[in-house]
Design goal:
By secondary structure, this protein is an alpha+beta fold. It contains 5 helices and 3 strands, in the order βααββααα. It is 56% helix and 17% strand. A hairpin with a 2-residue loop joins β2 and β3. The radius of gyration is 16 Å and the shape is elongated.
Length: 93
């Protein structure tokens, strides 16, 4: 996964400037919070969270063999975001 340096904030910046960090997450979709230069948390915009929630709920309804097919498919896709459910559905048919 490639992470833009624009999407990285320190833990102390998050504490001191939560509103600015939240706005940055809204603009970028998500930001990565580092504590002592190590990944500590991710702050998602509500839009990004809702997209991921739909995907997670979909995956929770699948059987393990179908999830394996999807994972293999995702390895072949250049991920610029969450793939549409229709694409994932076509992979398990």
């Amino acid at each position: 996964m490639n992470i833009s340096t624009k999407a990285i904030v320190s833990n102390s910046e998050m504490i001191k400037n939560y509103k600015a960090c939240r706005e940055k997450a809204e603009g970028l979709g998500k930001i990565f919070v580092l504590k002592n230069n190590q990944p500590d948390a991710v702050l998602f915009s509500i839009t990004e969270y809702e997209s991921l929630s739909v995907l997670i709920e979909y995956l929770e309804r699948l059987e393990e063999k179908d999830i394996t097919k999807i994972v293999e498919s995702l390895k072949r896709i250049e991920m610029g975001g969450v793939p549409p459910i229709e694409h994932l559905s076509s992979e398990i048919k």
